[in-house]
Amino acid sequence: MDKIASKPHYEILDGLRGVASLVVIWFHLFEAHTFGDHIAQVVNHGYLAVDFFFLLSGYVIGYAYDDRWGKISIGDFFRRRLIRLHPMIIVGMIVGAVLFYFADSPAFPGIHNVPLYKMLIVMVIGMTLIPIPLSMDVRGWDEMHPLDGPAWSLFFEYIANILYALFIRRFSKLALSILVALAACALMHYAVTNPAGDIIGGWSLTPEQLKVGFTRLMYPFFAGLLLSRITKPSKVPHAFLLCSLLVVVALAMPRVGGTTNLTANGIYDACCIIFLFPVIVWLGASGNVKGKMSSRVCKFLGDISYPLYITHYPIVYIYTGWVSKEQIALIPALPVALIAFVSCITLAYLCLRFYDLPVRAWLQKKWQRK
Questions:
Q1: In sequence order, what are the residues at sequence separation of 6 or more whose Cβ sits closer than 8 angstroms to the Cβ of residue 218?
Q2: pTM exceeding the 0.85 threshold for the entire prediction
Q3: How would DSSP label each residue in 54-99?
Q4: What is the DSSP letter of 257?
């Protein structure tokens, strides 16, 4: 088997993934205080981080693999992606199982009635990333992965990787452009016609939610792929600072249009995904990190971003349960929210340092020996 060396990473893009992951934690923590009212949500557009991640992934996949087909097989590609992504999916489900019963609360009133064996079955199925049917929901939110909610986006990420490897990698720039244009139209149509005025959704195994998930996947992932093919990085000074500010502002933006003009918020969502996020990715790819400290910050944020995203939600479940039980407002709860935030980062770092990196290194060596 040919040994294909990894290409250099775009340090700034790695760092931006980490910045977005940190915003996602605050989005989910603050969401506990809205009791389902997304319009009142602080860090209101944190859900768009998923779409940003999809676009980043498409860009990086194109950069890393488009010119390697012929040197690597489809099987090699899938092994590489599984080694990169799946170890943390497994540990994310384990963390969700360990912390599951601690979230018993008015927010999740049925948890104490869930038998241990059923929860463990859900954990094992979750480790495969196969969505569970609604009949096996153990939390009450109809999630396809109720022990670790954000795993739904990894399910769609896997689908995008499969579509890329089997079919779309062969698309010409024109064919890919047509696909991306159609996906952009579908995204815009859903965003402006959805009665809720946003593109939130995709985490449930229902026809409507699957439609949302595929709509959110197809444009950003393959727009990122197209972006990697038709653009070349330039030289943009202070790109990490500029792009970080753009990401934080886009995700923290208050609800556009309030309660009277829900369509305006849908337009905002679509414009961020279709126009702003590609610009941010191009700017990030066009910058250089100067100085050891900046490089370390980008590397740390990039390294921790995926473990942080895939392990933080079990802690958020517990925090949400505590908020629902105590009926506590956001400001008085901030010290506990800060503890939860730090706990998420600490857990992610421990998983990265003592599990993810060693396991991936072992799997890579085992693969190369074959």
A1: 179, 183, 186, 187
A2: yes
A3: HHHHHHHHHHHHTTTBTTB-HHHHHHHHHHHHHHHHHHHHHHHHHH
A4: T
